Structure formats: C-alpha cells, structure tokens
Amino acid sequence: RGDLVAVAELRKHFADKDLRGRGDNGSPIIVFPEFPAFGEITDKEFHNVLTYLTSVPSLSSTGVGFILVIDRRQDRWAAVKGTLLRIAGSFPGNLQLVLVLRPTTLLQRTLSDILFKFNKDEFKMKVPVIMLSSITELHSYIDRTQLTQELGGTQEYCHEKWISHRTAIEGFALMVKKTAQTLQSFGTELAETELPNEIQATTILLSTHTSKKERMKEDLLVALGQGSRLLESINEPVVRDPDHNMNQDELENLATVQRLLSQLDETERAFDEFWVRHQTKLEQCLQLRHFEHNYREVRALLDQVSEKLATFSEVGISPAHADHIFIELTTYEEKVCVLVRTAALSQEGDELIQKSHYAEDSIQPKCSELRTISETVNNNLRAKKDHLLKARELHHRLERASKWVDDGIYLLASQPVDKCQSHEGAELALQELERYLDNAGENQLTDLSTIWKDYEAVLNQQFRDQVEKVFQKQASMQEMFDKRRVSLKKLAAKQTRPVQPVAPRPEAFIKSPLSSPGQSSHGRTLHSSCSAEPFQTFSGFCALQHVMNELLETERAYVEELLCVLQGYASEMDNPAMSHLIPAPLQNKKEVLFGNMPEIYHFHKRTFLRELEQYTDCPELVGRCFLERMTDLQIYEKYCHNKPRSESLWRQCSDCAFFQECQKKLEHKLGLDSYLLKPVQRITKYQLLLKEMLKYSKGCEGADDLQDALTSIVGILKAVNDSMHLIAITGFEGNLSELGKLLMQGSFSVWTEHKKGHAKVKDLARFKPMQRHLFLHEKALLFCKRREENGEGYEKAPSYSFKQSLNMRAVGITENAKGDNKKFEIWCNSREEVYIVQAPTAEVKTTWVNEIRKVLTTQLEECRGTFMYYESHYESFSITYALAEHLFCFVFCLFCSGWNKASLSLDASGEHDGYSSAEDPLNSDPEDENGKKLCAGKYTVTAEYEIGGAQELSVKSGDVVQLVKEGDDGQWLVRNLNTSKEGWIPAANLINLIGKSKSCQSLTSSEGSGSGNLSTSSSCSETYTSFSDIKP
C-alpha cells in the first residue's frame, strides 16, 4: 500500500522524475528533470518517492549504486544547491555518481562554478558530484542509448506508460500478498477446527468449509487473471514488434510479474494440498458419525431381536398351534432384515479401515462386536427353528397316531355284528383288521423310551402328558383289536353255536377320566357324557373338533390382524417421520379412528386366545370359556358405539397419503376400513361358531354351557344393535338411561284414536297408518319416526326423530284388535288415547305382547307385594300417616287408570268370564259406530237364528257364541258355546244377531281366561275386568 502511495505522489508531483536506463556497469540512472515547483515538495513526499525509485531495480543493480542526473539548465544556482542538499539528506540508497547540468545563462553558470567550489563541503556526499556544462559532456559519462531524447539520447520512453505499469504491478503485488494472507488465515482456521460428534453438525461444518474454500478459489482465479493481463501488457511491444528489445526497466517489470505469478501458483498448490487433507478428514469424520449412528441402531435392533426370539419358547399344544408358532417365527425372520443390515454395516466398516480411516482403532472393535452378536442371533434363530420343527414333527406324529387310533376305533365300531356270525363274515372282518394293522406304518407310535430320547429337547411336562395319553389310547385300541381278533378267529375256526359279538361302545375305549380345560388331552376323541350311537358320536365329535379348529385358527388370525392394524396404522400416527402425511382432520384423532381396538387386542392376545387353546381337545366344554369371559366381551359395545364416528372420519380422510403409505408398507390389498370392520365381524362370528358347536354337542357334558354362551353372545349382539339404534334417537329431551333397560325395538304401522270428553275422534280419520319405530323400555314406550340418512356404510344408518313416549305405569294393552291377528292395542288415560299397532308378522306381535305383559305383570306383582306388606303389618285401622298416604296413592292410581265400581277387587277372577259391561263404554271401538266390523271373539246373542241342512246351528237370545274365523265368502264360522255346535253364518245376519255386542280380548288369548284389560299406574298395578255392552 505504501508503494502505491509513492507511485501516486510520483504521478502528482514528480511527473518527470523516473528511472531511465543503466550506466556502463549496470548502475540504475535516476533523472531529476527541470521542475519549477521542486521547492514546494515536502520532505516526506520527496523521501517516499526516492525510497520507491530505489526499490524498483533488482538487488544486484542497487548494490552497484545509483547514478543521479540533475537537469538544472534553465534554473538558478539556488535551485541546484537546494536539490543537492535535499538529495544528500534524503537519498535512501547507494550513490555511485551525481551528474549536474548546471544553468546555461552566463550569470548563473558563473555563480554555479564559484559557489559550488565554496559550498562543496556542505553537500556531505561521499560520491563525486560533477558539474556538467552541456549534454555532450553528459554523453561522456552515460551512453546515449540509456538517455531519453530531451537529454540527447535515443531511448524511447513514455512516462505515463511507466507509471501505469508500476501502478498495476504494485496493485497486483498487493493482491497476491492479501490472497496469501487470507489463505494462510483460512488454513489456520481449518487446522484448529475441532471435529463434531454429530452427523448434522459435521455435515454443516463440511458444507461451510467447502463454501469458504470455493470463495478462496474464486479470489485466486481473479488474482491469476489480473497477473496474466499485466504480463500481456508488458509483453505487448514484443508481440507488436518481434525485433523490439526491452530495456532494463521493462525486463525487471516482466520478471517481477512472473515472480508474483509464480508465488501465486505455489500458494494455490499448497492450499489445494492442504484442503484435500482437510476435506478428507471431514469426510472421514462424517463417515464415522454415520457408522456410529448406524451401529447404535443396529445394536438396538439386535437386542430387540434377541428379546423377541426369547419369547418363542413355547412348543405348542397342538399341531395347528405349533404350525402357527413356526409360521409366526418364519414371518418374523422374513420381516426382520437386521442381520442383512448388520453384515452390510460390518462390510462398510471394513472398507473404511482399508481406506486408512483416521479412526481405525474405534471402527475395528465395533465391526467385530457386530459380527459376533449377529452370529449369535443367527444361531439362536436357527436353533429356535430347529426346536419348533422338532416340536411340529412330534405334534404331527401324535396327530397321525391319534387319527389312526380313531379310525381303528371307528373300524371296530362299524363292523356289522350280524355278518360276523357266519364263517365268511368273520374271516372278512378278521382280514379287515389285519390289513388295518399291517398298514399302520409311521402312524403308529414306537416305544416311549425312543420318543423320550429323540425329542428330549422339546418335551416339557405338558407335552409328555400329551404323548402318554396318545400312547395309552393307542395301547387301548391295540388291546381291543387283539380281543376282537381272538373272537373273530374263534368264530372263523368253529361255528358250534350262534355267537353275537357286541360292537364296542366308544365310551369304553378310554378309561381315563375327562381332562380339565387347563390340561390338554390331545388324544381324546369320544366322551362318556354323550349318549348318541357310536357312528353318530364319532362323526359328531369330528365335526365338533373341526369347528373348534376353525375357532382357534380364526382367533389367531384375528389377533394378528389387530396387531398389524395397531402397529401399521395407529402407531404410525405418532411417528414424527409420518406426521407430514397426516391431514388436518386426522390430527390427534387416533382414539376416534380406532376406538378401543387396543383394549380388544390385549384382551384377546393375553387372555381369551390362551384360554380357548386350553379347550383344544375338549371342544364341547368351550362354552365355559365364553361364559367366564362374557363380561370382558362387552367391550365390543364400546367399539360399536364409536364405529359411526370412526367411519365418518375414515371417509373424510380415506384418500390421504398417510393411509396409502401405511397400506403400501404393510403390503395389504385391502384398505384400513376393511380391518376396522374386523371386531364387528368377529363378535358375530362367535355366534355362528357356537351354533355349529351346539349342533354337534347335544347330549354332551358342556351342551348347556354352549347354549348359555350362545344366548349370552346373542344378548351382546342385541344390546349392541339396540344401543346403536338408541344413540340414533334425536329430539328426546330426557335421559334415556332413566327409562330402564331397553327390552325390544322395531318398526310398526300405527293408528291413533283420541277421546275428548264423551266424543271419540279418530286422528285425522286416517286409513293410511303412521310408520313408527317403537322402543320398549322397562319404564316407558317411545314412538319415533325413522329417517334414512344419505351416505354409505355406517353413515347410511337410520336416525330416529322422537315423537311421543308413554309411561309404562299408565299403559294398558288389548291383545287383538280389528280382527287382524297382527294388530294389538296400546292405550292409556282410561282409553282417552288408543294406539292400534300392526306388527310385520303375527310372531312379532306375539313377542311384543308377551314382553309388554311381562313388564305390566312385574309392576303388578310389585304393587301387590307392597299392599300385602302393609296389610300384614297394620291389622287395625289406626294406621300411620305414611301408610294412609301410600294406600291413597294406590287407590288413586287405580282410578286414574280407568277402574270403576265393578273392578275394585284386588283379584279379578274369572266370574265375569272376560266380558265387558255396557255401562262402561271405555272399550268401545270408534270405527264400530260408523260401520260394524266383526272380529273373532265371544258374543251374547240378542235374537234367535236357525240354520237348516247338514250344518244345523240354532242360537237363541242369551246364548254365548264364539266367532272362530271368517271365510272367503263373507261368512263366519260360529260355535255355540251353550250347545257346542258349529256352523257358518253370513256376516250380515251376525250383525243382527249380536247387535252392538262387542268382544273385548284382554291380556290373555281370545279364549278369555277371565283377566280383563291390564293397566298400571304409579308404583302399583292390578288387573281389572271392564264390562262391555253385551247383554247377559
């Protein structure tokens, strides 16, 4: 930077002061041309310029000494003196000679000659100072070729060009210096950088250093470009004129630029070498961090695999179970790729070591450890597979032996007894037994000692018991075969008298007691508790065992599917790597989507499946397992309640990338919605399997348990179904839970009638009924309108708009109405409100009437019990206030429900025979006032009638008749209850015979057991007999 300042001062104040040529001995020549303002230049500026000019030549040239040429021809002696004094005091280099062209005017030349002699000692110069009078004298000291034209020389010189070159050279030199310093500083920074311990930090550091390095390289390229352009500028005269000879200054400039370029190249080369080393170290550090990270992951996975393999310690309790465990282990082996990953990571470590990684001492032990653990896990896996294969082999041997024994027992049981009485029949039966024994082959078990020796590794106590039972079963069968063969041989050898061998009963084949559910009895086939014939028993047991196998296999598959859904979908919703794929509506909605599926999975995995497997060999007793776990199975109600919400959320987000990615990872062909339906399908499947088991278990020990289990499962399904309908009710302001247990629900056609005052008004006189969905609770009956919703799946489930509710304490029923066996009446408030309900079928009607009867009867019994309590505890009429209040409520309730004077008896007996009184019009049918419509029932005749012919039927006034049924031709089959005769009477004649008489069917059937319409009110209920207008 100081050189550039000096050049700038040279350009500004010393326009003609420069280096021009060389002396004979190569001394640099500095010319001080005429400059009028020389005295105005400060000492500092003068010193800077001289210092710069003396530093331009090479060291060898400056060592010889400088020749100064001071041109003062047009100046005065004072200027000559001042210049010499300043040079003597400020010149920084070696001087060889000072040549002064003195003033040319006569006066000044004379003064110069005189005064120079007197003042010579003042200059204090150690070199000669020669005063020259002309240029010719100058040429005697310096060759003309080294002088410019103004000094009579021939050298071509451009001061501006010289200044330009020097400025460029000094600028380039400064750039080279700064570049070298920057590279050195960056190199120091790189060398002092500590290597990070994390992958991300190492990656960032490598990226940062690489970016800085690229910027450094760009600065180097800029400097090299500038130096190349400067070199071209210096060489321009030679390029333009090949014969051009450079002067010494140009040659030195050329050498300076070349030297700077060489320094720059060397600096760049050294920096590149250092960067390669540093970059390699950073890359190796990053490789090491990746290796260490992968090592930790693989190490954890290997530990997990070891722990998982430790869980495969079971040998199974049946062939299917052993196959399932083996398939599970094989599937796990296929899914777990940690061994392959371990081998790849070990290979990666070896490659790093081969490439002379600086952390070889750290990598080598990890690679060795990975190989050791991987080999241990691999050996453990092979050992587990061999162990399970051995267990499977023994299980299948036991299965084949058991089947061979079963077939042998069946063969004994199925041989026709009558045909064995003859010689030929006995021979054939004997040959059949011999062939069966000869073809035993591998099906027959060898001695136990061989089995204990061959399968010692897999035999636990349970497995040993299983082997012993099958072996005992085989020995029993062979003993029976031996006895049968002896008998048949006797029959074949001699037929002295008829012999009737008895086919052995299967229950006698095994004398050992039934095994408990907790102990597997693999070989057991027939049970002493069954009373069927041998063939039926054996075939039934085979079918039962088949259903049991299906139950276990589907249960295991069900558990695996639930686990797959929970791990492949539910767990992934908490995986940060998958969070970006989850849409906003699905965020934090795992419990809505999956409901209590985790609870269901844990129950089946940890409890239910294990308990079911204990009944593998006694399937007829599996009903006990269901009964013991029936309370736990009610968790399905909660899942089904949540299913509509889950279905709605699924439909909203089913096309999102999250579900697609999870399905892709699991390699499922079906979407998540199919698996969310599995719990609903499973609880339904239990019902079907239990039905099948019950069909083949009749007469067996566990048949009652199976029936109870089936009933309970159906109850759960009904409860789930009912609750699904209940939660769809809208518009009900009360609390549904306060209405008691939901007993029944279904859709009906409903007509309504209302009585206002003494008039009876049909509700809109409608012929078309209202479609209502009825919900019968213990305390209320709800009328709702069914509304179908748009959508698919659970979104298409109906909803119910609440319309009306009836308190069951104020309800009465009439079993038959309007002559239609599918209709019945529900009424309240002394028949001011009557609801005629038509069921889809007569069976549905009967079921509903019976259920309502149970509710009303229960309330009646509760009321009667309350009254009997007070009657027994308070014998006198001096009763307490509480009793009086309770009895008042009781009587008031009875009156509110439509009781009259004739019906206050607490026991409505059959003395009224089920008829109604004309004094009480509550049961009259509003439609009969407009047009009489007959219905089946009992009536009192008010006129006489007689039929002639074969079907003679005579009735007279006062007779009691029963309308049995209506024919297709408009006639009714009528039975005279007084004479027990029947006959057909036209409907028109019947209307005249019975007049306004109407049959009132009550809580019982049309035969009339004497119980009238039943009503309940408040906390008590009682039957009553209401009398119609039929004349006695």
Low-pLDDT segments, ≥5 res: 10-16, 496-537, 874-932, 998-1032
Spatial separation of the terminal alpha carbons: 143 Å
Strand percentage lies at 5-15%
Write down the overall geometry.
elongated
Kindly state the percentage of residues in helix: 40-55%
The count of strands amounts to 22
> Main β-sheet: number of strands, strand sense, barrel status?
11 strands, mixed
Structural class: alpha+beta
Q: Note the total helix count.
A: 30
Quick check: average pLDDT?
76
What's this, in brief?
With about 1050 residues, the protein is of the alpha+beta class. Helix content is about 55%, strand content about 10%.
Verbal overview:
With 1032 residues, the chain is of the alpha+beta class. It contains 30 helices and 22 strands. The strands form 4 sheets. Strands 6, 7, 8, 9, 10, 11, 12, 13, 14, 21 and 22 form an 11-stranded mixed β-sheet that branches. A 5-stranded mixed β-sheet has the order 1-2-3-4-5. Strand 18 and strand 19 (971-976) form a beta hairpin. Helix 12 packs antiparallel against helix 13 (360-414). The longest helix has 64 residues, at 248-311. The chain starts with a helix and ends in a 9-residue tail after the last strand. Mean pLDDT is 76; it is low at 10-16, 496-537, 874-932 and 998-1032.
Question: Which characteristics define this entry?
Answer:
30 helices; eleven-stranded mixed sheet; five-stranded mixed sheet; 1032 residues; disordered C terminus; alpha+beta; 54% helix
